[in-house]
Amino acid sequence: MSYISEKEENLLKRVIPQTKQPDFEEFWQKQVSYLRSFPIKFTKTELDTPWNKYLTFYEVTFTTHDDTVVNAYFSHPKDIKGKLPCVVRFGGGGSSRTFFPDIPLLGVCCFSMDNRSQGGVTFDKASYEHGDDFRGALMTHNLLDKESFYMRNLYLDAIRAIDVVSLFDEVDTTKIVTMGESQGGALSIVSACLSGKVLKTYPSVTSYACIPQRVEAGSGVFGAVKQYLTRHTHEVDIALNTLSYFDINNMVSLLKVPSLFCLGMIDPICIPEFVYSAYHHAGGDKRIEFMPFTGHSTSFEAWTKIRYEIADLDK
Fold first, then answer.
1. Rounded-to-integer distance, Cα 284 and Cα 314, Å
2. What is d(CA 95, CA 113) in angstroms, rounded to the nearest whole number?
3. pTM of the predicted model, to two decimals?
4. Which end of the chain lies in a sparser environment, N or C, as judged by fewer CB atoms within 10 Å?
């Protein structure tokens, strides 16, 4: 048996069960309907960049459900004729919008946005009534209320991003794909599950899967949740109920489009059994790329495979 086959066999034995509540799908249908009850307002301003000879870049802003103004970049090859596929690349935790010139050089459009109140210039206008206020504690903000929890707002922003690019004249709305690492992988899955407008998704070293186990381990951003619940033990059940609606291990049941998961086999943050569990439970036509001896990142070989597939989108 090969190294990878043996590892996959072991992961299959450790798949983590879903914790989906009976009203999971109904909850998200309601949230998407709520989001889309607000008209989309966006601005798009051409930028001067070092890539102007080959690519066109725009500064983009758009409004979402709570009047938060999200900042983004949009790009495409210079002097395009007709509509092109679009890659919406979501950023990891603490990141901000980025140009990603390598993507439009593949002959497609690219959209990259801030994650509210993380590393960019997008200020979260939501009102949070409880949670910790130290750095990195976003995942505790309204943790006891799934209707106003920080992650709910983050997920709705991702869906709004798909709705926004669908309005751009340059974009072929039948060929929108999502991709990202870590948190970006989670948002790629969420938007593919809930927007109804994504052709396929490429989540890598996906975060936000198997959240109870991550809270127990104090892994990544869920270390703040662990600290919070250590001090508020009477709120544990309420908090875990809230988190179940945002757990990618549950969300993937709604996935209907093709997906390619990338799994770092020595990832210390989004550990292999968490990512593999999400892959195992995923709906739709799915594939997985095992990256031996890779941690919380995507191997050059895996990214190259994805880029070949993106370059073929316009054929």
1. 22
2. 9
3. 0.97
4. C
Rounded Cα–Cα distance for residues 186 and 247 (Å) = 9
Question: Which domains, ranges and CATH numbers included, belong to the chain?
Answer: 3-314 (3.40.50.1820)
CA distances from 1 to 9, 183, 221, 223 (A): 10, 33, 36, 37
Residues of the chain below pLDDT 70: none
- Closest CA relative to residue 72, chosen from 120, 123, 125: 120
pLDDT of 119 reads: 87
CA distance 98 to 73: 7
Those residues with Cβ within 8 angstroms of residue 270's Cβ, 6 or more apart along the chain or in another chain? 182, 205, 206, 207, 209, 219, 220, 264, 296
Q: How far apart are CA 70 and CA 161, in angstroms?
A: 9
State CA 297 to chain mean position distance: 15
Alpha carbon separation from 140 to 71, 136, 151, 250 (Å, rounded): 24, 9, 9, 20
Tens digit of pLDDT for each residue in 159-197? 999 999 999 999 999 999 999 999 999 999 999 999 999
In whole angstroms, give the CA distance from residue 22 to residue 45.
44
Cβ atoms of 277 and 250 closer than 8 Å: no
Gyration radius of the chain over CA positions: 19
Q: Could you tell me the maximum CA-CA distance found in the chain, to the nearest angstrom?
A: 60
What pLDDT score does 134 carry?
77
